[in-house]
Design brief:
single chain, elongated, about 130 residues, mainly alpha
Amino acid sequence: SHTVSFEVKMDPRVLKEGITKEDILAQVELALKVRDTVNSARRAGGQVKKALEEKSAEEGVLSDIKKNLISDKGIYTQPMIIDQLGYLYSNLIGADQIPGQDAYHRYEELNKALNEQIERLTRILQK
């Protein structure tokens, strides 16, 4: 294996727009947090599907957790936590820009909702 160091330079068009290195670093930092949260959400989705196959006693609660995490199949269904996080992530990585306060706020809302579902799932799985 061979390693080579390199320097990433900013697009001059982005610089003309007034975007700074710090702005890009903030965007990358938030995007990485959202990416990691998407991965956690997908793991939880897989765990709840598996638990539904195995634990009939908690089926109602598990179904509710699944409903909150995973969007229903079909046309024009409401996107749930996993899909909403994925949408936020795709918006963050789509262009070199300063993340708006709405992106930070939405991330906090979705992360809180995800953690509530993960806590519910963990309580069931520990029984």
